[in-house]
Amino acid sequence: MKRSKRYKEAFSKVDRLSRYDLTTAISLLKSVPVTKFDETVEIHMNLGVDPRKADQQIRSSLVLPHGTGKDVRVLVFAEGEKAEQAKAAGAEFVGVDEYIDKITKDSWMEFDTVIATPNLMGKIGKLGRVLGPRGLMPNPKVGTVTMDIETAVREAKSGKVVYRVDKFSNIHVPAGKLSFEVEQIKENLITIIAAIIKDRPAALKGTFIKTMTLTSTMGPGVKLDVAGVAVESKS
Question: How confident is the model over 57-80, as pLDDT tens digits?
Fold first, then answer.
């Protein structure tokens, strides 16, 4: 496969055998020639869990201190006073039946987060086959099924991210944009890593976080020093 000059230059900066601290890894990504768009920075972790076991499934959410840098479009399933609260908090789409129909009949997916009040979950359950595989189905574990609609919408707009372990024991979490300052990305990453460390299943034996890799949308994968990064996240 023919590689572009930018691709070759980006990957030449990274020592594939080295494990980097957060500051160095972020600086490496930011040193790569820029693209025509603001790339997303992501952290990828491989965990020592067995996601087939109920007590080792990891799914949660957190609000990044510096946000994701993304303009989040929020869909809220709510009625009456809760619908008005959603609109006041900044949700782009608020309603029930009309949006169920748009998703099921028109394959409409012009939103990034879905929030719902508990009383409507029975009605929107039919959307599980569409929203579930995309990680968009409202879930009380991550705060997207709630009566506190105002807080949920504001958190979503200000940089809330949802993460879950996949069937290969991996977790992928966005940590901001490449245009962010190094310290902003670092603080977002420390928040993410600290949260996942706290999610370690009590019954798990052996190593919890096996590998960590930092990357950007079009950039190289930079492997992190797991032990060193864990210490940074606890300090």
Answer: 999 999 999 999 999 999 999 999
Do 99 and 72 meet the contact criterion of CB atoms below 8 Å apart? no
> Tokens 């070759």, residue?
8
Q: How far is CA 166 from CA 44, 60, 176, 194, 223, in A?
A: 11, 13, 21, 19, 20
The answer to whether 164 and 58 are in contact (CB under 8 A) is yes
Superfamily of domain 5-67+161-234: Ribosomal protein L1/L10, rRNA-binding domain (3.30.190.20)
Nearest-10 crossing angle of helices 226-234, 182-198: 90
| Among candidate residues 173, 171, 174, the one with its CA nearest the CA of residue 56 | 171
Q: Using an 8 Å Cβ cutoff, are 116 and 95 in contact?
A: no
What the block records as the tokens of 96 is 């029930």
Where is pLDDT greater, at 95 or 8?
95
